[in-house]
Protein 1
Amino acid sequence: MAATPPNFFFKMKRSFADVPIDENGKISTTEFLEAAESLVSLFDLLGSAAFSVVQMDMNGNIKKIRDRQLANPVISSTLQDIVLSEKVDKHRTASVGLIWLTRGLQLTAVALRRNIESSEELAESFTKAYGETLIKYHSLVVRPVFKLAMKACPYRKDFYGKLGDNYDAVKEQLLVWLAGLEQNVKIIMDFFESGNLAKGL
């Protein structure tokens, strides 16, 4: 049996499928941030400067969470612990970063799920996903910037070609990674909603 040729998923620092989640549904902070950084690098493959605003937004939110983790490592081992500790402190910088990062991750998850299960071009999948996810949180000033980025996606054949030479292998790994991403997003969204923790964020 021939070995699978290296592709994007082999090169990423951490897959969302490999982010530890404990028996209480708490997500490990360090590995989550590594997986999020790997996702940000995915936007490099989309090959448009328009996506720099999306990457900057995500990287800024990753930094907010990591800064809190570095400042308070004992109470920052999981994402949920960070949010709950900030609720007590009434200083919610990392919580703001996490909810906005998760919204961006949700956009990516919805777009790629639509695309992999259809024959849509990426621009259509991302535009529709934006309309289902992030747009309701964005101001009238920000929306055109993100809409432009969504329309700047490459053709799907070019994008999947950049992920790797073997489409079947790429699709298999993408689906595993995507399932992990969706699981992380759902856990975080449910956590914020269950405690009304996203209010004001």
Protein 2
Amino acid sequence: MEIVNFIKQYIKNPKTVGAVAPSSEKLADRMVEDINFLNATCIIEYGPGTGIFTEKILNKKKDSTIFIAIECNLDFYKILKDKFKDETNFILINDSAENIKEYLDKYNIDKVDYIISGLPFASLPDTMSQTILSVTKEILKAKGEFITFQYTLFKMNLFRKYFDKIKRKKVLLNLPPAYILRCKNVKFINYFNKDNWS
């Protein structure tokens, strides 16, 4: 049923949905495998869609960790609201990721540990992408990470405008295959610990 809903939304909104099928279990596992759930106090997800990453995060996070998911598609929002209605410290918002700071202010949250994104930056308007990435950089903690996946590396230069270091890995078991990008700024990170960062 989820894949049918996803296809319908892709047909209606190809620029903001960005894929004809939900992300695979393998991609979801790889997206969250580097999150330090023990120490994270606040996690944000942009564009959760039907909630495959959302579910992984909810299953792994501490009860005390605040988890905010922001979804602009009303149909997906309704699916998520029903699916995760009983979760602890889970805030679901129907809005654009461009406006996430307004909600952090509303809930008295200053900075966040991780931002997970399913947004299709390759198809979003440039001004929207730049606004989202600028706000993302602003609200992340000094050692925070922005973790996104993309189907091509077309927007790497855009991501590099906002993040000093980007580590990437490819997941073949997804339709289509995807690149996961772990993005951070290393200003306050030990420069001698640079393994696999490029």
